[in-house]
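queue> pop job 88
queue> type: inverse folding (structure -> sequence)
queue> payload:
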């Protein structure tokens, strides 16, 4: 059991480290294209990248047929809704701030699991740690909404990312509730292909389409984002389908994302640098999820 726990921890950390690099890639790609179009292509190609790992195409399509509504629900919450909101939000914020807000995802995962799952309820101590994390988000958000029209847009971006966090929590619950019904590779590949295609077609009605005459930097960012999504989500779905793992407890490892995501943004992206409020908010959010993890272990 201890060996399995260590393995699960390592896999969760690898997935989160991969996700933490996404903010830089997204900001690079969005210099050349529109948010939803970029998201659609990213996830469509992510799903395609997983096809060589499927044992046979006949098994792939039969699994989709048998689990069609599960795939639709996961695709809608985990890809279409989540990443439409995510890309809109990230496009309104700098990469570091976006990483910090998305880093509060474990708190919202715990809330959705509490509401939707009978075996994943929150105690008073867990609730207090979640409240402190949300306090960190509010601390970051308030200055953005009080500094003039330009920062009101940033406040809207924060709100969109919070809604994206809730959609992610719901998607996690769908996967966990249906553990063992479908291979995590097939579930991830099919839901990303469907969700990515819908995102791209949706973008054609909501955003201008400028073709694909972009520099190599764009395609490098798109390729890396597609690869990391294929890998990270497959690892995550594999862990979520384990009966011994709770949604709220697994999502605690995502506290890694804001730390590495913000740091990478400050190091790599031009014109991005840390400020006191963002660092303080990140520390509060990080502390709250670490405390939540400790409470979960005790319980």
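queue> result:
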């Amino acid at each position: 059991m201890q060996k399995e726990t260590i393995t699960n921890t390592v896999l969760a950390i690898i997935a989160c480290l991969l996700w933490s690099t996404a903010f830089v890639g997204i900001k690079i790609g969005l210099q050349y294209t529109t948010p939803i179009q970029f998201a659609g292509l990213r996830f469509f190609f992510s799903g395609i990248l997983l096809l060589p790992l499927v044992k046979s195409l006949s098994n792939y399509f039969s699994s989709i047929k048998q689990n069609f509504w599960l795939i639709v629900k996961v695709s809608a919450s985990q890809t279409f809704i989540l990443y439409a909101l995510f890309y809109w939000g990230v496009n309104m914020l700098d990469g570091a701030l976006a990483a910090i807000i998305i880093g509060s995802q474990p708190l919202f995962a715990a809330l959705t699991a509490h509401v939707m799952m009978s075996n994943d309820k929150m105690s008073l101590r867990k609730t207090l740690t979640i409240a402190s994390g949300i306090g960190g988000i509010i601390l970051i958000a308030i200055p953005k909404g009080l500094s003039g029209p330009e920062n009101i847009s940033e406040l809207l971006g924060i709100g969109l990312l919070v809604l994206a966090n809730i959609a992610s929590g719901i998607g996690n619950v769908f996967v966990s509730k249906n553990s063992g019904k479908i291979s995590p590779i097939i579930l991830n590949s099919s839901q990303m292909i469907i969700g990515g295609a819908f995102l791209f077609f949706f973008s054609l009605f909501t955003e201008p389409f400028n073709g694909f005459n972009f520099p190599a930097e764009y395609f490098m960012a798109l390729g890396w984002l597609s690869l990391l999504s294929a890998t990270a989500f497959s690892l995550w779905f594999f862990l979520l389908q384990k009966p011994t793992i709770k949604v709220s407890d697994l999502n605690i490892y995502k506290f890694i994302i804001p730390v590495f995501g913000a740091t990478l943004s400050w190091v790599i992206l031009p014109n991005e640098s840390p400020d006191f409020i963002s660092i303080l908010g990140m520390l509060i959010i990080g502390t709250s999820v670490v405390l939540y993890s400790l409470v979960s272990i005790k319980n």
